[in-house]
Each structure stands twice: as structure tokens, then as C-alpha cells.
From TrEMBL:
Antitoxin component of a type II toxin-antitoxin (TA) system. Pfam families: PhdYeFM_antitox. SUPFAM superfamilies: YefM-like. This is Antitoxin. It comes from Methylomusa anaerophila. InterPro entries: Antitoxin_Phd/YefM, phD/YefM_antitoxin, YefM-like_sf. Transmembrane segments: none annotated.
């Protein structure tokens, strides 16, 4: 995580956008007045939202954990995908 003041971000906006996108850097934009702001890539944001969604449903999250445990213990099964014609 990188903390940068507002003026620096304003002067080098493209550079910080590139850091967020290319390096998956989370950038905290600090301000003298008002709250700070976080700049992150859309991919990172989508990942956070997906994780929040999965964890918000206990049944879905428990099934995911169980599946991961089965995979680790060698109990996973390979299945053929049946496509609609």
C-alpha cells in the first residue's frame, strides 16, 4: 500500500493509475481536509466485491471451503463438461 498526498497524485495521475493497474498497488490519497481516498484497479475492486458476495452467504462460503478441502486431500473428481447443442 502506498500513501501519497493529493497534490502529488494530481500532478502524476497517469503514473498512479498505471501503478494501480499494472502493479496492483493500492494507493491511499491523503488530504489535509476531508477523508482520505483509496485508488485501486477495477480488477482489484471486482475481486473485493466478489469475495464480499461469496462470504455474505454462509452456505455458499462453506461449500467453497469444503470443495477446497476435498481438492487438497485428493478427493476431487474430474468431470466432462456437457455442452448444449
Amino acid at each position: 500500500m502506498l500513501a501519497v498526498n493529493y497534490s502529488s497524485v494530481r500532478e502524476n495521475f497517469k503514473t498512479y493509475c498505471d501503478k494501480a493497474n499494472n502493479d496492483f498497488e493500492t494507493i491511499v490519497i491523503t488530504r489535509k481536509q476531508g477523508g482520505n481516498v483509496v485508488l485501486l484497479s477495477e480488477a482489484e475492486y471486482n475481486n473485493i466485491m466478489e469475495n464480499l458476495f461469496i462470504r455474505s452467504n454462509k452456505k455458499t462460503y462453506d461449500r467453497l471451503l469444503e470443495s477446497m478441502e476435498q481438492l487438497k486431500s485428493g478427493k476431487a473428481q474430474t468431470r466432462k463438461i456437457i455442452e448444449d447443442e
